[in-house]
Amino acid sequence: MRAIDERSPPIAMKDREQSPETLPPSAIESAAENISDLLREALRYSPGDAALVVSDAQSPLAIALTEAYRRSLPEARFIDFDSVPPEQVLSAFEDLSAGALVVLIQSTSFRLAAFRIRLELFKRSIKVIEHPHLARSRGAEGLVYIDSLAYDAAYFRGVGHALKRRIDAASGGVVLSGGEELVFSAAFETAKLNIGDYTGMANIGGQFPIGEVFTESKDLEAVNGRVQIALFGDLSYSINRPPHPITLVVKSGRVVAVEDSTPEFDQVLESIRADEGEVWMRELGFGMNRAFSFERTVSDVGAFERMCGVHLSLGAKHMSYNKPNIKKRAARQHVDVFVHTDSVTLDGEVIYQGGAWTVPVD
User: Left if phi > 0, otherwise alpha if psi is -120 to 50, otherwise beta: which for 225?
Assistant: First the structure.
């Protein structure tokens, strides 16, 4: 495969190596439209700003997204990661100034020795769009992933900020799932936003797709009850769908029992206990991306966690919040599980019901 390190016109899909899973031209057109909206409305990218796209061609979705970015960023520099030495990629990063844009399109995840790409670029005030683990989204999942890149600024920002205001002011809440109640009887940590609004933030960009507001209880031991999960991230970092919802029994912030489990979920719990001794429940995530649902999934947990609904994390690891009773060095696992959610209430106000967020937008 030839190296791509030039400003060049889009490469027709017929000139790419074809595979049975190659995405249709209409999907690439949709991706280009979604990406153009993201660039303009979320990243505040202006035509003429410096841009660098680093991609591979190891999966149909990576090939399709690279073509879509060629249409959306015709003046950008493109590098095929697999066709040049690492030093050339690093040199291209060094040529960029603050305010430039870097797009990383990765079938797996790029490695450049000790260079942590996104973090190092953020340190230099460079905008970053990262699409990792695209090879996990095969076939029709690629179309779902492309749909998830659509950016409705009024929805993401309006609902996102409304959720944050309620979370930050709440003294507790309840997640109702399949008739079971998971009760948060303490206030929440200051909510974090991943909604494409980077106002006041140190860094612009991150991992895409986006659409999430997340928090956790200030007092982890103030979480008790039962909750049903419909999907979970397994040991291969892929979405696993059990034949029926699995019920978690939570006491003092820890999973103490499981009903209707599966061998795959038992492996997840065994792995956490082996590393940490017990299974903490930490993150309370409010996903907002309406392209994802229990019917429309992608295999990659990192993408699917934006699903419109509620997800929780199992394991002691959570990089966004520090807790005095959890030692960072001992916290090794963070496994997302997706709740079969009937409703969510904060201080008695219903904020989620019928598969949608119901908070009024100011």
Answer: left
Report the distance separating Cα 52 and Cα 55, nearest Å.
10
Q: Is the pTM above the cut of 0.85? A: yes
Amino acid identity, position 326: I
The DSSP bridge pattern shows strands 335-339 and 223-233 to be antiparallel
Instruction: List, in order, residues 6 or more apart from 165 with CB less than 8 Å away.
Output: none
DSSP string, 5-43: EE--PPPPGGGSPP-TTPPPHHHHHHHHHHHHHIIIIIS
* Residue 173: strand pairing partners: 184, 346
Distance CA 64, CA 76 (A): 17
Identity of residue 108: T
User: Token pair for residue 135?
Assistant: 């090879």
Q: Which helix (H) or strand (E) holds 247?
A: strand 246-251
| SS3 category, 242 | coil
**Per-residue pLDDT at 114:** 64
Question: Which residues does the chain have with pLDDT short of 70?
Answer: 1-21, 114
